């Protein structure tokens, strides 16, 4: 492989890596993407958020997305016995075409994004695994050490290294800066695809469905209608519960993960009805220990994007949008730095990214707190939950669920805190009828008395 000097080398060609590659190539930089796998490759994480729409437009792949993948008009949350549920149709709060998101086959989706990077001028090399990066031996560049699948070694030089290696977190591990969230429990997810399913009404409309598991399980079951007759069905469980079940189930089952998966999805009558007579299309995939962050995300020589910089429990399908948007923001920041020597755009990008992750963390901790907002119970038409009167509080959560993470994050965080406190809910009574974003401005800057006036 030629010994070319690149402006930027990107480790990993997933959604974060390919988005930042396209962004930097569009801004005129020489970019190399090193991807350890041969694409297309499978990956968990198949349901996208509406706010991805504008990124797809910027990347020039919106029409391909519309042509290839199932639409996602909304999300349904329900409790385990199906007696309480809430449905969130993004059209209610987003009044242009961008309300509609997608459910994707990750292998195909990631391939589209990576091909798009090449089409925009990035040099993409698959089946090359980065082993480590030497930041210290030269003042003006770094040296990237890599290997192909046969163990042949390669050395590349670059002014800037971007870690987009996903949960492999190559640089966070090398720089010893990977930390755990103190607010989030460790969890494990087991998932597979099913065919010959029997969709209920909401799944037939192409909504994702989340069934809340409470008590010691502290998790959820997801059903994602990837195609008309192919659903991704997974279960996320508290790690402690999963370890305890492993001890019990491995006594009687050779494949304890399969046994645990089947045991948990069978606890939901709704999931059981959908899968009655269906067949599993793949072996079970296990993903564990998700939720961490890097405490050293960028410098004058490196930056981390997507899961390589941090990952939060995927209950709200936030990961891909966070990866895509961070890729764009950090790409602009790096370009500005390479052209001017100033980190100001990068500083601003990472402030917004930190805010977005804080907001998602707040939402996730709220979901798991049994005394807090009950997502299955919030609905305009169903259930007995007191929030049903408060249309705008509903709109506010609705917009966060759609992915409005990067602007107004502190105001949303404050608003969630307010909504978690039943005594403060009155504050929202007087906001009915206001457009949701406008509401956040008001709710967070005025007293309840001012709002009533
Ligand atoms: C159980 C579960 C369910 C999820 N559900 C959703 C969902 O419904 N919606 C959603 O938006 N998100 C979901 N996510 C999150 C989503 O999958 C991730 O946030 C997303 O894939 C992040 O993209 P990325 O590019 O940062 O990382 P990845 O997609 O993981 O890409 C990283 C790439 O780097 C490559 N790589 C790794 N190490 C090296 C190396 N040393 N050298 C070269 N290449 C390397 C890998 O092969 C890979 O292709 C879920 C996650 C989990 C665990």
Question: Any low-confidence stretches, pLDDT <50, length ≥5?
Answer: 380-390, 429-449
The CATH first-level class of the largest domain comes to: Alpha Beta
Number of domains: 3
Write down the overall mean pLDDT.
89
Instruction: Report the helical percentage.
Output: 25-40%
User: What is the name of the CATH architecture of the largest domain?
Assistant: 3-Layer(bba) Sandwich
What is the rounded Rg? Answer: 22 Å
SS strand fraction: 15-25%
CATH fold name of the largest domain: FAD/NAD(P)-binding domain
Distance between the termini: 70 Å
Give a short account of the largest sheet: 8 strands, mixed
Name the CATH superfamily classification of the largest domain: FAD/NAD(P)-binding domain
Record the SSE blueprint.
Layout: E1 5-11, H1 15-26, E2 31-35, H2 52-59, H3 62-68, E3 70-72, E4 74-78, E5 85-89, E6 101-103, H4 106-119, E7 123-126, E8 128-134, E9 142-148, E10 153-163, H5 170-174, E11 178-180, E12 187-195, H6 201-204, E13 208-213, E14 219-227, E15 230-238, H7 239-249, H8 256-265, H9 269-275, E16 279-280, E17 285-288, E18 292-294, E19 302-304, E20 310-311, H10 319-340, H11 344-368, H12 391-402, H13 409-420, H14 426-429, H15 436-445, H16 448-452
Parallel strand pairs: 1-2, 1-10, 2-7, 4-13, 10-19
Antiparallel strand pairs: 3-6, 4-5, 8-9, 9-10, 11-18, 12-15, 12-16, 12-17, 13-14, 14-15, 18-20
This protein binds flavin-adenine dinucleotide (FAD).
């Amino acid at each position: 492989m030629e010994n070319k000097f690149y402006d930027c080398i990107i480790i990993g060609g997933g959604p974060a890596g390919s988005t930042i590659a396209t962004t930097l190539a569009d801004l005129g930089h020489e970019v190399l993407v090193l991807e350890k796998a041969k694409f297309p490759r499978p990956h968990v994480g198949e349901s996208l958020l509406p706010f991805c729409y504008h990124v797809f437009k910027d990347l020039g792949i919106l029409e391909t997305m519309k042509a290839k993948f199932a639409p996602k008009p909304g999300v349904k949350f329900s409790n385990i016995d199906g007696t309480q549920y809430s449905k969130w149709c993004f059209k209610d709060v987003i009044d242009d075409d961008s309300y509609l998101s997608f459910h994707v086959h990750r292998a195909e989706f990631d391939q589209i994004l990576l091909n798009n990077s090449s089409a925009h001028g990035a040099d993409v090399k698959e089946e090359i695994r980065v082993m480590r990066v030497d930041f210290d031996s030269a003042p003006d560049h770094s040296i990237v050490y890599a290997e192909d699948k046969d163990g042949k070694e390669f050395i590349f030089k670059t002014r800037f290294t971007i870690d987009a290696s996903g949960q492999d977190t190559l640089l966070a591990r090398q720089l010893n800066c990977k930390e755990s969230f103190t607010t989030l429990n460790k969890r494990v997810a087991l998932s597979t695809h099913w065919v010959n399913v029997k969709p209920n009404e909401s799944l037939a409309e192409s909504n994702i469905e989340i069934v809340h598991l409470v008590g010691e399980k502290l998790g959820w079951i997801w059903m994602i209608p990837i195609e008309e007759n192919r659903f991704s069905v997974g279960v996320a469980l508290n790690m402690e519960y999963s370890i305890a079940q492993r001890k019990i189930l491995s006594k009687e089952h050779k494949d304890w993960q399969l046994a645990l998966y089947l045991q948990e999805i069978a606890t939901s009558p709704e999931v059981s009805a959908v899968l009655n007579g269906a067949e599993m299309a793949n072996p079970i995939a296990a993903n564990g220990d998700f939720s961490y962050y890097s405490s050293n995300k960028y410098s004058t020589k490196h930056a981390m994007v997507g899961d390589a910089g941090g990952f939060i429990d995927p209950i709200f399908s936030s990961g891909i949008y966070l990866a895509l948007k961070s890729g764009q923001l950090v790409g602009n920041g790096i370009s500005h730095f390479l052209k001017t020597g100033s980190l100001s755009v990068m500083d601003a990008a990472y402030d917004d990214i930190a805010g977005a992750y804080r907001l998602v963390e707040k939402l996730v901790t709220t979901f798991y707190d049994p005394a807090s907002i009950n997502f299955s119970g919030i609905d305009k038409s169903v259930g007995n939950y007191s929030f049903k009167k408060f249309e705008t509080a509903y709109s506010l959560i609705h917009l966060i669920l759609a992915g409005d993470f990067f602007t107004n994050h502190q105001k949303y965080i404050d608003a969630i805190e307010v909504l978690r406190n039943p005594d403060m809910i009155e504050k929202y009574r007087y906001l009915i009828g206001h457009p949701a974003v406008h509401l956040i401005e008001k709710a967070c800057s005025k007293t309840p008395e001012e709002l009533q006036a």
